[in-house]
Amino acid sequence: MNKFFTQIAPMLALLAALSACEKKDTPVTDTAAAPPTKVYLVGVESAYAPFSSENEKKDVVGFDIDIMKALAQKIGIEVKFVPTPFEGFFNFLAQGDRDLLISAITITDERKQTVDFSAPYFEASQLIAVAANATKVNKFDDLKTLKVGVQSATSGDEIVQQLLGKNNPNIKRLDSTPLALKELEGGGVDAVVADDAVVKNYITNNPGSKLRTVADAGFPKEYYGIAVRKGNTELLDKVNKGMADLKADGTFDKISAQYFGPAK
Question: What is the rounded distance in angstroms from the CA atom of residue 145 to the CA atom of residue 22?
Answer without folding.
Answer: 92
